[in-house]
Amino acid sequence: MVQEQPRPSRSRDLFDRACKTIPSGVNSPVRYFEPHPVFITRSQGAYIWDVDGNRLTDLCCGYGALLLGHRRQEIISAVSEQLLRGTLYCSPTSEETDLAELITGNFPSMDKVRLVNTGSEATMTAIRLARGFTKRRKIIKFEGGYHGAHDSVLVSAGSGQAHHGISTSEGGLEEVSQNTLVARYNDPSGLEETIRQDGDVAGVIIEPVMANMGLILPQDGFLQQVRRITQKNDIPLIFDEVVTGFRVSPGGAQQHYGVKPDITTLAKALGGGFAIAAVGGRREIMDNLTPGGRVYQASTFAGNPVAVSAAISSVRTINRIKDQIYPHLELQCAGLSRAVADLASDMGIDAQINHLSSMMQIFFTSEPVTDYDSAKRSDAARFGRLFAELLKNGVFVAPSQFEVVFLSSAHSGEDLDHVLDAYRLALGAIRD
């Protein structure tokens, strides 16, 4: 039986202190929730501990980065060994090539790879590559898809037939946002119409599985149609696999769904908890990067030896245990999803649960959630109450309705029994 834990007390004091020197008290807005975020002091395996010593079963998992759980021994050992050799060289290492070869081995669509630091940096580079390669300006993204915090993709659908994007952030330049067109996910005819209305499209960027408006799965054949449409119109297709790369399968969503994009971005599970990302794709596209080409990209910390050592260990570990980890996680996630759905149904709560591989999310709505509009119609306020109740009962999920629950290889059957008990108590508390 789950025992309700007291609300952390020191977190309130630490948050008040943080607000004096950190804008809004957090270094990423997704970490904030009312009345204040929980401050964490350590982690191990499937758990995190807050500053008051409460142990929480972690279903946020670094927003998907921790496929192998916290402090996986192989990764910690590789990083520890690298720390003794150095932390930053700003000159090539053979390990960078080792990692590039591992990535291209797992992702055959990527002939060449450039290592960067973050998913945002990877998508920014991918878009610049598409523009440099095609000599066109416009990018198409899908409503609700998140591709980082840079101006080209920090847009939402505007009004009017052309689906031109409008910036979702103050400080975003209108002239940049207007070069981003917005289509609707799971609507191939809408994508075709958007392309038909504008002949200056340099690339289409898509999360093959939407993981930033809750979890939204592609309907049967949708990704294949997107690939056909982009090929017919000679437009590079960019798969943003920052979340799904290595998490859905060893070769990401493109392996799972059998679709080969022109450019791919990776991050999160690539580094197993360390900051590293990658952009890769067809040779003739990637060769446009400087210094050999004229598409500029550079970074002091790209290929950082510590992060590279973590990524090498992460990918090698995933590849070694892939025949066990993916089927096991899929069974765990499907079982948990069914059980939570049954609980909601028994309590008379309208709920939809989308799940795939080791990812799931609950939406409080009676209608299937297949795109941004249907996701936005779910009861986000009720989800916020669910989050708070889960936290009281020792389970930490991402605070927002529009994030995802992630499982890791560190979660045991006993952990998931605890999680299910927490959902039972939480759903019971919010049924009215």
UniProtKB/TrEMBL annotation:
Segments forming a coiled coil: none
Keywords assigned: Isomerase, Porphyrin biosynthesis, Pyridoxal phosphate
Listed pathway(s): Porphyrin-containing compound metabolism; protoporphyrin-IX biosynthesis; 5-aminolevulinate from L-glutamyl-tRNA(Glu): step 2/2
One Pfam family from the record: Aminotran_3
Domain of life: Eukaryota
Cofactor requirement: pyridoxal 5'-phosphate
Enzyme type, top EC level: isomerase
EC number: 5.4.3.8
Cross-referenced InterPro entries: 4pyrrol_synth_GluAld_NH2Trfase (IPR004639), Aminotrans_3 (IPR005814), Aminotrans_3_PPA_site (IPR049704), PyrdxlP-dep_Trfase (IPR015424), PyrdxlP-dep_Trfase_major (IPR015421), PyrdxlP-dep_Trfase_small (IPR015422)
One term of GO molecular function: glutamate-1-semialdehyde 2,1-aminomutase activity
GO aspect biological process, one term: porphyrin-containing compound biosynthetic process
Family according to the record: Belongs to the class-III pyridoxal-phosphate-dependent aminotransferase family. HemL subfamily.
Protein name: glutamate-1-semialdehyde 2,1-aminomutase
